[in-house]
Amino acid sequence: MNQAQRTEIFARLQESTPEPVTELKYRTRFQLLVAVILSAQATDVSVNRATRPLFRAAGTPKAIHALGVSGLRPYIRTIGLFNTKAANIIKTCSILLDEYSGRVPHDRAALESLPGVGRKTANVVLNTAFGEPTIAVDTHIYRVANRTGLAKGRTVLAVEKGLLRSTPNPYLKNAHHLLILHGRYTCRARTPDCRRCLISDLCQWTAKTN
């Protein structure tokens, strides 16, 4: 796939969704961080269902830390791995309060040092909360990048590096959300809607559905 084709793909996706945003619900950078930690192996819908009452009751690092693990668990018990996530979130709140005055750090290394925060979570926070041109490769982006030919790779890191290298600069900031939304609603894993796909003619996937 050449650069002109990549540019056309992103141009069409951007035209369809001019202001793509995360579907996680949050009001602050801290709440986004918590939501993204919870979203590992969980849907945005299930996370929003849990965080709505949680953030009403405790929406700051201090307030969630005061809940403790036992107090946090009931709010997130419907989410997979909730015991581990509860422990990680409480530890993260403690670090934020002790080392960052309760603020979410604008630094990859600092973010990845927080319990429950890996490269993908850090990329989401850097992109969504701070406007950095990062791409967090989840299952949707991994699938779309490989199917279309935008950035083929056998690992999420390889796909991330490929997308960062080949995505046209005007679309780099929004690429993360554009590709996630395309994978979630059109280029689905089992039932891709190729017939209605905006970029079907540019996609290199040979197993397109009718």
Characteristics of this structure?
2 domains; Endonuclease Iii, domain 2; 210 residues; Endonuclease III, domain 1; elongated; mainly alpha
Description:
With 210 residues, the protein is an all-alpha fold. The protein has 2 domains: 3-20 and 134-196, Endonuclease Iii, domain 2 (Orthogonal Bundle); 29-128, Endonuclease III, domain 1 (Orthogonal Bundle). It contains 10 helices and no strands. The chain has helices at residues 3-16, 29-38, 44-57, 61-76, 82-99, 108-112, 119-128, 139-148, 156-166, 169-185. Helix 1 packs across helix 10 and helix 4 runs antiparallel to helix 5. The radius of gyration is 18 Å and the shape is elongated.
The proportion of residues forming helix, as a percent range, comes to 55-70%
Provide the structure class.
mainly alpha
Radius of gyration: 18 Å
- The structural domain count equals 2
C-alpha termini separation: 22 Å
Strand content: under 5%
CATH topology of the largest domain: Endonuclease III, domain 1
- What summary fits the major beta sheet? none
Could you tell me the mean pLDDT?
96
Give the strand tally: 0
Looking at this structure, what is the CATH superfamily of the largest domain? Hypothetical protein, domain 2
**What sequence of helices (H) and strands (E) makes up the elements?**
HHHHHHHHHH
What general form does the structure show?
Answer: elongated
Low-confidence stretches: none
CATH class of the largest domain: Mainly Alpha
CATH architecture of the largest domain: Orthogonal Bundle
- In DSSP terms (H or I, runs of 4 or more residues), the helix count works out at 10
